[in-house]
Amino acid sequence: MSYKAVQKVRVKVPASTANLGPGFDSLGMALNLYAWIDLAISNQTTIHLIGDQMHGIPTDKSNLIYKVAQMVFEEAGVSHPELEITMYSDIPLTRGLGSSASAIVGALAGANALIGNKLTPYALFQLASRLEKHPDNVGASLYGGIVVAFWDGERAESIRIEPDSNLEVLVAIPAFQLSTEKARGVMPKQVSMKDAVYNLSHSSLLVAALSTGNLGMIRHAMKDALHQPYRAALIPGMTTLLEQAENHGALGVALSGAGPTMLALVDARSGQKAELEAFLKDTLAKEGIEAQTLWLKPSQEGVSVIELLEGDEDLQSLVESEVLA
Ligand code: HSE
Question: Fewest C-beta atoms under 10 Å: which of 71, 163, 209, 288?
């Protein structure tokens, strides 16, 4: 990590999945699907978004990355009102794969690197959790691996777990978008003691299973009573997937974050991968939902930043030559 201020940086930040079933607002895992942000101190603000999927994202000073970068400068007591920002992302928007958390974490880490990393990663985690109001996605994008965390409205604390090397992730990403706001809106304001105990016991067991590499326990632990039963109404086919995916080779299955993406944890050595993928796609298709499936791995690395020097390849060329190649 460099402690000298620099003119221009390139950030690579992973997607993430939150909750992992019972760990509502407290468990997250980074995934090897990435967004890249080039950030430079400039004398005029320009924001360039590469690719079609970011259509509609503001390119003026109301842009999230611009605003978050300014928060870092303010917190560190420096002023850089004009920035040149370029962004490319492979993370689908509003699908439950942490796209907004990756933008927040990318902007925090990039802006911090521009000013010589005046803020610690812990301070960035506090800022990110305050912005998202839950620490699961931002923690995973910041630190990588699996993150167990809380945010109590004032502070966030976390511990990172190294994902088991045999853990793979299959996601089915429906073609429709679902906002976190809407998916939180269907949840009850109060829950019973029975459901609270159900979740804390399952979530604790899941953390223990993931920490110790007890992959066989995931199917028992990855069950939720707090949010999935309510959100199922928004995602046709979800209840069938939750009830049956383990019979088709999943170690466990959950809604990814606030959805609509469905996520299955899979043992890399499983002989049922093709069967599971077909089951996910077919179940959603029967409900009229077109879904793209992707095989992913946990990303061991969280956000990373490099300094860009005069003559380095620009992000557009990097995307064309390496990312899309
Ligand atoms: N924990 C959050 C939720 C993640 O489930 O609402 C989505 O941003």
Answer: 288
